[in-house]
Amino acid sequence: MIVSGGIAAYKCLEVIRRLRDQGIAVRPILTRAGAQFVTPLSLGAISGDKVYQELFSLTDEHEIGHIRLARDADLVLVAPATANILAKMAQGIADDLASTVLLATDLPVMVAPAMNPLMWSHAATQANMRILRERGIGVIEPGEGEMAESNERGIGRLAEPEDIIGTVTGFLGGGRLKGRRALVTSGPTHEDIDPVRYIGNHSSGKQGHAIAGALARLGAETTLVTGPVQLPDPAGVTTVHVRSAQEMLAACEQGLPADVAVCAAAVADWRVAERAAEKIKKDGTGQPPSFRFTENPDILKSLSAPGNRRPGLIIGFAAETQTVIENAVSKRRAKGCDWIVANDVSAGSGTFGGDTNIVHLIRGEGETDIEHWPRLSKADVARRLGDEIAAALETAS
Ligand code: C5P
Q1: How far apart are alpha carbons 355 and 348 in whole angstroms?
Q2: Are residues 185 and 164 in the same domain?
């Protein structure tokens, strides 16, 4: 684990302690800036290992050497990861022990960025993050919050220790969903009308992506099939990008078999029957074009159909603007899925594109089958749903 500089570095002590509680050995590498925030003494005591700090240290090189340091592990975690170390990783700069290990390693790498919101949103940092993501580096997304060193709010806060721990243990195979396969749909679909226009909707994909991330952190081998969204691919998840409902269905079928499927995508019910090959132009008559629509496949219904490829647990979403529970209960029956997560997307609910959600988990039609959850962040809804899924699969097997 590489601890780089930043006020959040103190949180790495809790992360290390709790990883060790779960039987995961942590070998710490501390950067010079990191040592301004945590002492090698406390890091060494918490990890129970030697703290590696210098590239040109004769004793360190004699004991293990930076190349072996870069090989003898299952995972390299950088937490917190500063803008500086992320930039060095993106550019391949190796000017200290941490960056040299990162360049020399062929192990999976995960980073948990933490920095001032302006530094995080800077075009340079975002470009570096794109490079790192493309290289397959797992990103434990920073959260939004008050920054410790100023009164600024924004994205850049180190992920919560429990998220970092969950991601690591899920990756290392210690989670409750270890050995399970999960399929998640997310985002809107775009149904093309012609080469430049489409029918879409306001789904941001935040809830579906959070669920895919949560399931992966619980150890599930997770496939996320997503329509077009402005979100990064979640760490540790196989993400398949599609546009239309038909493509989404095909990708979901490829994602089977699965033990659990969560359909959180806002799939367009209709598409134009004949997609125009060229851009549709005004014809000068003042008459609008008319379109014939055809029904899209219902992915949730199709996955829920009885058969030996049906996932054991299928969860749909019901975005409703009125009589939320009743509509969701009848939707559960109509689709043939096992659970429905009902949410209110009426104007003013803040659900579409927002970071919170008020949901009701519907597992049946009796009063006790319906749970009303309080307003939670989408990340917390995902975590709680992940726990419910794990519990249900544990009971079923
Ligand atoms: O019918 P409605 O769109 O309200 O149902 C919502 C649920 O059905 C969601 O889980 C959504 O992902 C799923 N769905 C689907 N394919 C469709 C339409 C909806 O999987 N064509």
Answers
A1: 13
A2: no
* Structural domain containing residue 92: 2-171
Judge whether 34 lies within some domain.
yes
Tally of CB atoms within 10 A around 394: 10
DSSP secondary-structure letter at 279? -
Same domain, 235 and 216: yes
Alpha carbon 336 to its chain centroid, in Å, reads 27
Question: Which tokens is 104 given?
Answer: 């020399």
One domain, residues 160 and 54: yes
Atom of ligand 1 nearest to the CA of 303: 20
- The active-site residue out of 201, 296, 327, 357 is 201
Q: Which CATH number do you get for residue 41?
A: 3.40.50.1950
Q: Is 124 helix (H, G, I), strand (E, B) or coil?
A: helix
Tell me the pLDDT tens digit for each residue of 320-358: 888 999 999 999 999 999 999 998 887 676 666 677 888
Q: How far is CA 203 from the centre of its chain?
A: 16
Number of domains in the chain: 2
CB 82 within 8 A of CB 33: yes
- CATH code where residue 354 lies: 3.40.50.10300
Regarding whether 365 and 228 lie in a shared domain, the answer is yes
Q: How far is the CA of 380 from the centre of ligand 1 (A)?
A: 22
Domain co-membership, 274 together with 167: no
160 burial (CB, 10 Å; 0-12 / 13-18 / 19+) is middle
67 pLDDT band (50/70/90 cuts)?
confident
Dist. CA 92–CA 84, nearest whole Å:
12
- Minimal CA–CA distance to 97: which of 119, 128, 125, 76? 76
**Residue 185 in contact with ligand 1 by CB distance below 6 A:** yes
Instruction: Indicate if the pLDDT at residue 231 is higher than 90.
Output: no
Q: How far is the CA of 263 from the centre of ligand 1 (A)?
A: 7
Q: How far apart are CA 23 and CA 86, in angstroms?
A: 28
Centre of ligand 1 to C-alpha 300, Å, is 6
